[in-house]
Amino acid sequence: MSNGRAGLLNVLTIVVLAALLCLIGFYGLTALGVVRIFPPPTPAAVASLPTSTPTPRTMGIPTWTPTVVPSPTEPGPPTDTPGPSPTPSNTPTFPPTPTFPPTATPTPRVTRSPWPFTYEASLRSPVYGCNWTGVAGQVQDLDGNPLKGYPVHVWGGGLDFVVTAGADDRFSTYYGSDAAWEQFFGPSPKPIEIRVQLHDPYRQDHPPVSDEIVIDLPGTCSTALAYVIFTQNH
Asked: Does this model's pTM top 0.70?
């Protein structure tokens, strides 16, 4: 008796579970929209207003007005039509006058001396004091280097001498050049005219290589020494 009752309960349990599963499936299909329980609502009709029909307007028939044709006019004599006015020619434009660059003015240069040596003479006090009158000097190249051995012709006041540049070491000490020279003319300052000229030491005839210099001593202590510097220029 107990076994039969237990079997009935099992059958009922199975039936309940099956019904529950069917119910769950039904609600699931309904939620997904597969099964529709209620029909969709019918949309309400929208009232439309009546469209106004335009009333046709009666157009009057236009009255025909005859066009007046003008009577033909006899043609008059032809009118002379002036021809085109001649176009004035363009005024010829001449090219501008070319402007030439200014001519360069050559820089003045020192005229080359015809002599191989130029000179510079000055008057000063003698290195020996006022008890001396004479002439001295030196021979050099363009760089100031001494040129020894050149003969110097000195004359004036009845005296005539030839001295050699650099021949006396004393003169080198007095005048600061190894090619210095000197010639004594008197024991006291006095007015005197002295002439000086440099000569070529390398030729036997010893021709002059400078211009002839004329020096006037005024006879004062501060001007008793005439100092002449010969500079080789070519």
From this structure: no
Residue 154's identity, in one-letter code, is V
d(CA 180, CA 150): 10
Given a contact cutoff of 8 angstroms between Cβ atoms, the answer to whether 120 and 210 are in contact is no
CB 127 within 8 A of CB 221: no
Is residue 114 within 8 A of residue 209, CB to CB? The reply is: no
Residues in the chain: 234
Encoded amino acid at 199, one letter: H
> What pLDDT score was predicted for residue 180?
98
State the DSSP H helix or E strand holding residue 5, giving kind and residue range, or none if neither: helix 2-32
Distance CA 51, CA 74 (A): 66
pLDDT tens-digit map of 42-78 = 555 444 444 444 444 444 444 444 445 455 555 555 5
Q: What is the largest CA-CA distance in the chain?
A: 195
CB-CB contact of 193 with 88 (8 Å): no
